[in-house]
Specification:
This protein is mainly α and 279 residues long. The chain is built from 13 helices and two strands; from the N terminus they run ααββααααααααααα. Helices cover 71% and strands 3% of the residues. A hairpin with a 2-residue loop joins strand 1 (39-42) and strand 2.
């Protein structure tokens, strides 16, 4: 396992574009901390974002993982390019000639995917602790380490998304086309959900149940938007709508299971494509 991971990391670190994207990704993740410095002043009205509770424990776990997940496209480009370079530079064929099996090749790629997801999760964990202890009104241990399931959901979400990108990179061979396919597939899922909601599930939530089983939508459902959890947003919504706002923000075991199944499917299909393809 260590040998396979070392091979992949050497390839990535020797590629200048991949190195720049990886560094840029973690730099951008750290920019979440800059939200604390945002202040709005309109005459007598003053708003300091950090004072609205976004860095309070345990809410910070939800907020930071949701914001960080938006930036996952940077590493997605690295994953897709990683596979495209294998075909372009002939390193895939060379690795197989040198004795690496196709199964080991897929394992090495998947280990890299897991490493990226794990590294990002640890980074968010440490940064959230620092921001939380700096700004949170609640510092009791029981509160600080509650809602950590959002970190698990974040790790699973990134692993699944990067596995999907790995599958597309193997399937399409060209990074630009693979990313284009990712974009088109995302639109396709929106279309399916939209049509279902409009034509079929009027007055029901059938579209939500269908979305639960679509790959990208199921990943998205792991961490729902956190903004309406804020008391200031919730109060404003209730004043405008006149009704109490109720939404399920929890991370459910069945949502994680669905995403893990998709991850297994992507890796299995990646291996099958590589196994049947004449290199």
């Amino acid at each position: 396992m260590k040998r396979l991971l070392t091979i992949e990391l050497q390839k990535l670190w020797k590629n200048r574009s991949s190195k720049v994207l990886i560094i840029a990704y973690f730099v951008l993740l750290s920019f979440i901390a800059l939200i604390a410095s945002i202040k709005f002043e309109f005459g007598a009205f003053k708003l300091h974002i950090a004072e609205q509770g976004i860095f309070n424990f345990p809410y910070i776990w939800h907020f930071n993982t949701y914001i960080a997940a938006i930036l996952k496209l940077f590493l997605a480009i690295v994953i897709v390019s990683m596979m495209a370079n294998e075909y372009s530079y002939g390193t895939l064929k060379q690795n197989l000639i040198d004795g690496l099996s196709k199964k080991e090749f897929i394992q090495s790629k998947f280990l890299t995917v897991v490493l990226f997801a794990f590294g990002s999760t640890v980074f968010i964990f440490i940064m959230s602790l620092i921001l939380g202890y700096s700004f949170s009104s609640y510092n009791e241990i029981g509160i600080v380490f509650s809602d950590l399931e959002y970190l698990l959901a974040y790790f699973v979400k990134l692993t699944a998304f990067f596995s999907f990108c790995l599958f597309l990179g193997i399937l399409v061979k060209r990074s630009a086309f693979a990313l284009g396919f990712l974009f088109v597939w995302n639109i396709f899922e929106w279309f399916v959900i939209g049509i279902t909601r409009w034509k079929i599930s009027v007055g029901t939530n059938l579209y939500e149940k269908i979305g639960m089983f679509l790959p990208l939508e199921s990943m998205s459902n792991l961490i729902k938007e956190p903004f309406t959890r804020l008391s200031v947003i919730k109060s404003a919504g209730e004043m405008i709508g006149g009704e109490k706002f109720i939404k399920d923000y929890d991370v459910h075991w069945y949502s994680i299971l669905i995403v893990l199944i998709w991850t297994s499917i992507f890796i299995f299909l990646s291996f099958k494509i590589l196994q049947k393809r004449d290199l």
